[in-house]
Amino acid sequence: MNVGVPRETAAGERRVALVPDTVKRLVAAGIDVVVESGAGAEASHPDAAYADAGATIGDPWSAEVVAAVRRPDADRLRDGLVLIGFLRPLDDPDGLEVLRARGVTAFALESIPRTTRAQAMDALSSQSTVGGYKAVLLAAGRLPRFFPMLMTAAGTVPPAKVLVLGAGVAGLQAIATARRLGALVSGFDVRPAVREQVESLGATFLDLGVVGEETEGGYARELSAEEQARQQAALEERLPDFDVVITTALVPGRPAPRLVPASAVERMRPGSVIVDLASEAGGNCELTRPGEVAEAHGVTIVGLTNLPGTMPTDASRLLSRNVQALLLHLAPEGELVLDFDDEITAGACVVRPKEVAA
Ligand code: NAD
User: Fold this and answer.
1) Ligand 1: which of 122, 125, 206, 216 to mutate, most ligand atoms within 8 Å of CB?
2) How far is it, in rounded angstroms, from Cα 236 to Cα 285?
3) Are 280 and 304 a contacting pair, CB within 8 Å?
4) Residue 232 is inside which H or E element, if any?
5) How confident is the model at residue 253 (pLDDT cuts 50, 70, 90)?
6) Lowest mean pLDDT, pick from 212-226, 239-253, 311-325
7) CA-to-CA distance for 132 and 195, rounded, in angstroms?
8) pLDDT over 60 at 20, yes or no
9) How many CB atoms lie within 10 A of CB 77?
10) Which of 77, 180, 195, 271 is the most buried (most CB within 10 A)?
11) Mean pLDDT throughout 35-59?
């Protein structure tokens, strides 16, 4: 099998799907890798590092498999290509249609089952870890206060109070990071199982009187309109206590749940910061502007998207290990064998080859 690694073309996308360290492992497993010149440059990996790892620098598009971060431009795609990447299967059906029309077999990193066997391939988790960490740094950078408590000759500074809404992978990482910076942290999630995880990180579980359910896949069920209204009202009461609110709540395939209405932002103290990690899915806060930093009633609302892309070196390091695991799963002996009876292969494949789809 040979694998092509293109240079990403989407604005602000600085990650690369495979880094030299993993290229070396793939080459050792008998897989050829062709890297487009400059593909790793923004993630701190020059062409020479790929060449040293055993890759060829050249045209990645003639390879059997292309490993990309995002869906490549349509004119790059050819019939029979196998594509791996973040392909947004649930919220970009037109993008999948482009792949299908071009005869591409597509594996979406988002669709890899969240099972123990597939844990090494779980790119959603690895990138959420980066996003959760970076969200806290963005908040700390914009907050006109310290995070930790300080006792100085000039007086005592109380610690900042941070609330993390949604305690999945990104939320738990945000809680841990805010704790490391010395803030007093609270967390909330509708999945009842999360309370223990929040508390084990040294944070307090905020009781909002709303308890949701966990679906079979471990995700949250969408709240009913009545539950959502109760959640919003409870939050509106509690938000003025916090200096920083980091929101990470998502329900796969649905618009982000609206947790923080405009009226709740209005009640927050001036200088407070909201970082909305759900902004790409429409935002958990009514006043979030996706891709932008907004201000309302003296509150800063950070709606920047693709935070993993702002930490390309480590985000790519983790992503690359996920992609490596998927590649070795699809080609255990160094040759591609697509077994659609396998739950990982079948689950991740969002556009099947024509002969299998028929
Ligand atoms: P996600 O990104 O889909 O959602 C983030 C969080 O938002 C979730 O914890 C969800 O419960 C929460 N949420 C949804 N609606 C909410 C609301 N109205 N109010 C507050 N919170 C709300 O989730 P994720 O980070 O991808 O993780 C989902 C689950 O999958 C977790 O249980 C995680 O532990 C599990 N998981 C399992 C594996 C594995 O077994 N290999 C790997 C990764 C994650």
Assistant:
1) 125
2) 12
3) no
4) helix 225-238
5) confident
6) 212-226
7) 18
8) yes
9) 20
10) 77
11) 98
Report pLDDT digits (tens) over 269-326.
Answer: 999 999 999 999 999 999 999 999 999 999 999 999 999 999 999 999 999 999 999 9
What does the DSSP 8-state code read for residue 260? B
The closest-lying atom of ligand 1 relative to the alpha carbon of residue 128 is 25
Give the number of other Cβ atoms within 10 Å of residue 101's Cβ: 11
Contact assessment for residue 276 and residue 289, using Cβ atoms and an 8 Å cutoff: no
Instruction: State yes or no: pLDDT of 44 exceeds 90.
Output: yes
Q: Which atom of ligand 1 is nearest to the CA of 119?
A: 41
pTM, to two decimals: 0.95
Largest Cα–Cα distance in the chain?
75
Report the alpha-carbon distance of residue 208 to residue 196 in Å, rounded.
16
Burial of 328 (0-12, 13-18, 19+ CB in 10 A): middle
Catalytic residue among 125, 195, 228, 314: 125
Within 10 A of 191 (CB to CB), how many other CB atoms are there? 19
pLDDT at 245 exceeding the cut of 60: yes
Judge contact between 141 and 314, C-beta under 8 A.
Answer: no
Q: How many CB atoms lie within 10 A of CB 143?
A: 18
- 76 neighbors 8 (Cβ within 8 angstroms): no
